Write the structure tokens for this entry.
Amino acid sequence: MVLCFMFTWPCVSFYLGWTAVATWKWIANDDNCGICRMPFDGCCPDCKLPGDDCPLVWGQCSHCFHIHCIVKWLNSQQINQLCPMCRQEWKFKE
Amino acid sequence: MASMEKRLQKELQALLRDPPLGVTVDSDKTSRSLSEWTVDLEGAPGTLYQGEKFQLAFKFGPRYPFESPQVIFTGSNIPVHPHVYSNGHICLSILTDDWSPALSVQSVCLSIVSMLSSCKEKKRPPDNSIYVKTCSKNPKNTKWWYHDDTV
């Protein structure tokens, strides 16, 4: 008669820490900036990182752009400062 | 990559992937820097330009889309239209005063097709011969008067 012995080695894992994963999203009425066409979740073409350094702004007309994009456009307009989407006078939403 | 090239790259991809009816980008004639494009247009069915083929030349400056592109008809067939001069220059307000950075190659092409489509009589602008003799090569240097919104 053959006796079989099974050995199981305890399997021990060490958890040295934990990593939290989260996603974020701007809440805008579109996915892409109408000026640079980059996603709102990304940044304007002049920035490297999305987020607080490249925020979105809204006009009173409710259209939304990267702040860097709309400011560049407004600065290039000498007379009327109009929303690129609806051509109403651009006023920042308070 | 400059922001102008980034945006043009996106526009080119979108136009190649999903072109509107009658609008075709000639990707061979589009320069590597993306600053010059050639776009083929077809006259819309049911209009005076049905079956005709036209070509548009786009030139983009480094400030695009904050500055409008230079857009002219080119090639052998320049449409006979009250807002198109025989040298290919187009009198269309969105190409100068009414430009917006939310416009694009696609929207400019569609505006031009629509401008052609609403034409009721094929004729050149009344000042065609004097304009063509005296104008600058770049139509953006022309001080246009936009007075006729019907065509």
The interface with chain B takes residues 34-38, 44-46, 69, 72-73, 76, 82, 84-85, 87 of chain A (CB under 8 Å).
